[in-house]
UniProtKB/TrEMBL annotation:
<feature type="domain" description="Ferric oxidoreductase">
    <location>
        <begin position="49"/>
        <end position="161"/>
    </location>
</feature>
<keyword id="KW-0249">Electron transport</keyword>
<keyword id="KW-0288">FMN</keyword>
<comment type="similarity">
    <text>Belongs to the MsrQ family.</text>
</comment>
<feature type="transmembrane region" description="Helical">
    <location>
        <begin position="177"/>
        <end position="194"/>
    </location>
</feature>
<dbReference type="Pfam" id="PF01794">
    <property type="entry name" value="Ferric_reduct"/>
</dbReference>
<dbReference type="InterPro" id="IPR022837">
    <property type="entry name" value="MsrQ-like"/>
</dbReference>
<comment type="subunit">
    <text>Heterodimer of a catalytic subunit (MsrP) and a heme-binding subunit (MsrQ).</text>
</comment>
<keyword id="KW-0812">Transmembrane</keyword>
<keyword id="KW-1003">Cell membrane</keyword>
<feature type="transmembrane region" description="Helical">
    <location>
        <begin position="117"/>
        <end position="134"/>
    </location>
</feature>
<keyword id="KW-0479">Metal-binding</keyword>
<feature type="transmembrane region" description="Helical">
    <location>
        <begin position="53"/>
        <end position="74"/>
    </location>
</feature>
<keyword id="KW-0813">Transport</keyword>
<feature type="transmembrane region" description="Helical">
    <location>
        <begin position="81"/>
        <end position="105"/>
    </location>
</feature>
<keyword id="KW-0472">Membrane</keyword>
<keyword id="KW-0349">Heme</keyword>
Length: 207
């Protein structure tokens, strides 16, 4: 079963993931042009872009635990998932800079210092920027595999920061981001609890 699923996954081109990953952006553009947003369109645009970035970030974090536990490999899609995450995160920040703050850089700097949730968000974005810039084979060769892997562990810090940014921005204790934070903590916990792929053939004979 695992071999069949992995064979099917190998037949899916990475560009197909990119095509599917841009569907939320296309739907957002459609809603924006056709009046499908709420009473605060700028807020809706920012939130939808930010949430989509988080979804792709969680998906990228799930790749390794899924492989270790089930033997099903999405590894060839992990870079695309991370870059899709950064694409939506960048658009999220850009929408805030242009539409919300109207390119008033001084006001932006004061806002970031004054509002802790913006500090969390900006810190997470800078981490994602570092990951996106180095998500290429040239960076792996230039940095060396070990240093590159250490840098990309920033994803484990960025993901909780994104959910804290979301929770604090709403000034309540909303269920959805709390559930996403819980999912992230579970995924990070699984990386520690299952440090190596499960060998199902051996596991079947161990009582």
């Amino acid at each position: 079963m695992r071999a069949a699923v992995n064979g099917w996954l190998r037949g899916i081109p990475v560009w197909a993931l990119w095509l599917g990953g841009l569907v939320p952006l296309a739907l957002l553009v459609w809603d924006t042009l056709n009046g499908g947003l709420g009473i605060d369109p700028i807020r809706d645009i920012e939130h939808r872009l930010g949430r989509t970035a988080l979804y792709f970030l969680v998906a990228s974090l799930a790749v390794t635990p899924v492989l270790r536990i089930t033997g099903i490999s999405f590894m060839r899609f992990r870079r695309a998932l991370g870059l899709l995450c950064f694409t939506y995160a960048g658009l999220h920040v850009l929408s805030w800079v242009v539409m919300d703050m109207a390119l008033l850089w001084g006001a932006m700097a004061r806002d970031v210092v004054k509002r802790p949730y913006l500090v969390f968000g900006m810190a997470a974005f800078l981490m994602l920027l570092a990951l996106a810039v180095t998500s290429n084979n040239a960076s792996i060769r230039g940095m060396g595999g070990a240093a590159w892997r250490r840098l990309h562990k920033l994803a484990y810090v960025a993901a909780p920061l994104v959910t804290l940014h979301w929770i604090w921005a709403l000034k309540t204790f909303p269920l959805e981001p709390v559930l996403w934070l819980s999912a992230i903590l579970v995924l990070l916990g699984l990386r520690v609890a299952v440090p190596r792929p499960i060998r199902w053939g051996q596991a079947a004979v161990v009582k």
